[in-house]
Amino acid sequence: MKALIIEDMKRRGGGQDSARIYASMFMGMGYDTYFLTNVSSVDGVSAGVAYRVEYEFRENSPAIVDFIKIIRLKRQLKKIDISGFDVSFNNHPNVFIINGKINRLHGFSFLDPWLDENGELSSHLPPAIFRVTRLYSTYNGSFFIPNSRYTREISIKLFHELDLDVEMGDVIHPPVTVKEVDIGEKKEQVLLLGRISRHKGIEDIARIANDNSIRVIVAGYVNKGDEGFVEKLRMYEGKNLEIMANISEKEKERLMAESSTILNMNRKENFGIAVAEAMSYGCIPVVPKSGGHWTDIVEMGKYGLGYGGQDELVEMLNKSFLYTRTERLKVAESVKRFSVQEFSRKIANLIEKITPNRK
């Protein structure tokens, strides 16, 4: 049996981390596992590369540049036949336009730059262009699985904007690496973890940290195109704000172990793997009252705190420092519903259902 994972592995972020977990999972299920990607080898896993394509994403590029790159990539993908794979898992269908047996939705990524946190379009011109050019027509009748309830809700109402009739599967949350750790004393310290990008609302935290004497650490990956944004953030560094770019896994684990709070400021976060991972270390999540981290991870206040405006954010950050060890253990325990084992079980059940009926 053969499995194929389709993803942009030049970038760093939650999607790439998940793709590596998928590879390990499929190999554990007995599949000879390969990638269709834009690198010659994928670090961190022993899966090979069956097909390499030429494509490089750059953060903050003009939309027309991204559109041209996707068109060029689509032409390359048309020459590739993946029908020989028993399972093909497209983890990046808005860019890698090739129909997998399973196509993964991380938010409604086809139109994400023009969507607000409620899935409302700021402009109807982009979907009109995509319809006229039939950019995504290959997905008519395709099967998609959303990564959160939030993603599912907005996708159901937005696929018609692309004139696509698709089959929508049940929600399968992303796999989160859950480690059994001893939750000890916590510093009154807020951790903002993940890809450091101007699109995630991070810039506001600089003023909040300094104006309210709250210690904040911003740590994570920096992709090409965001280097200037990180340098701008560094202008605000001081006693209350520290920027840590491209940290190691060991450093990330240390920060999660010692920090009291995990903060995410992206109002349209489709899930939030970094939030869930930090929760397993006893960090209390503080997130906007929108997006997948609020609906699916925090469950609208059951396992953490939400905020509307910045005044409420400051209030919730201070409140998060007061959680007891017992309360933190409860938050950490809640993350097991997103474990790799749970994800593998659901994917195995899904493959059993769809493989006999799909080419």
Can you walk me through this structure?
40% of the residues are buried. The strands form two sheets. A seven-stranded parallel β-sheet has the order 3-2-1-4-5-6-7. With 359 residues, the protein is α/β, with parallel strands linked by helices. It is globular. Helix 8 (273-279) links the parallel strand 11 (259-263) and strand 12 (284-288). It contains twelve helices and 13 strands. It has helices at 14-28, 63-77, 125-133, 149-158, 203-212, 227-234, 249-258, 273-279, 292-297, 310-320, 325-334, 340-354, and strands spanning 2-6, 32-37, 48-52, 87-90, 102-105, 143-146, 167-168, 187-193, 216-220, 241-245, 259-263, 284-288, 305-307.
Separate helix tally: 12
Succession of helices and strands: EHEEHEEHEHEEHEHEHEHEHEHHH
What does the overall shape look like? Answer: globular
Q: Which structural class is indicated by helix and strand composition?
A: alpha/beta
Radius of gyration: 20 Å
- Major β-sheet profile: 7 strands, parallel
Helix content: 25-40%
Termini separation comes to 14 Å
Strand percentage? 15-25%
Mean pLDDT: 92
Number of strands: 13
Spatial arrangement of strands, main beta sheet: 3-2-1-4-5-6-7
Extract low-pLDDT stretches. Answer: none
